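User: what does the whole thing look like in 3D?
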Amino acid sequence: MKKPQDIASLDKKIDVFKKKRTAKQAQSVREDSHQNAAKGFQMSIELIAGVFIGFCIGYFLDLLFQTKPWLLAVFTVLGGAAGILNIYKSSHEGENI
Amino acid sequence: MSSPLEQFEIKPLIPLEFHGYNISFSNSALAMTITSVFIVILFAVLLRKRTIIPNLSQSVPEALYEFIYNLVKTNVGKQGLKYFSFIFCLFLYIAFGNLFGLFPYSFTFTSHIAAVGFLSVLALLFKICVGIYNRKWGYLRTFLPKGIPYALAPLVVPIEAISLLSKPFSLTVRLVANMTVGHIMLKILGGFVVALGIFGVVPLLFQSLIIIFEMFIAVLQAFIYTVLSCIYLGDALHSH
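Assistant: Here's the predicted 3D structure for the full assembly of 337 residues, as structure tokens:
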């Protein structure tokens, strides 16, 4: 005859634990999102840096060899690839810190 | 109301010209000089009584020293400690430059791509020299990591080269963007304080909090810059 009461009290206990856990999870997610935002900002810079440097190299090589649009186009695409490589590298950098 | 970007303007204080190049002593150069001299004087004063058991004034620079020492040790490794002095100078210069920029009527030289970009290019040259010195011809392996077929070399080598060259740019942009944004925000909030009259108390309170946050950002960005240049330098020492 004791069983139903036990189950009711157990339900209450479970509810309390669940509430505590969701509060904790929400806090950790909030903290993570700050770090992720900083990381995302960093990665966007890495990508743009690659494209920008590729563009600059292409532009100056074009001036040097007078092959106007071609090297610019090739090096901008290579710069994009380098940007993605940068993102890949920097995503591993964080593991050491 | 003056523009929020006016504070970043470079004005020549002592006009100088050398073979047609403008090498005037500007307000940016003055800020750099003050920062460097301040660091030297601060360390000289704090370390004037050197004892084995450090007193309070001695323990501050020692704590800073050990902090950066451990940073270099974990990120570059034992063989990176030879280059500790370079990293330590870089950290102090940027951290104090950022903090100096927060004083009223001062100038934030770390908000200029030319100033920080030079430091980053210096780190790049340093990295290449260290890499060649330590690994001789093996350093060229950086451009073609092991396990990649030689047929792909024409594609991989330019990509790795651009990746190497673009790192100083991304380092610079991060620091410069953080400094510029913070100072523009402070200026705009300051404009609100004046414009709102008696109700300006609200943005004033907010601004005091932002200033504390900016001090934190100033040191944090210097730290991040140092860590990333450490990792960047470490790449030159270790083969992949």
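In plain terms: The first strand of chain B starts at residue 12 and ends at 14. The mean pLDDT of chain B is 86.
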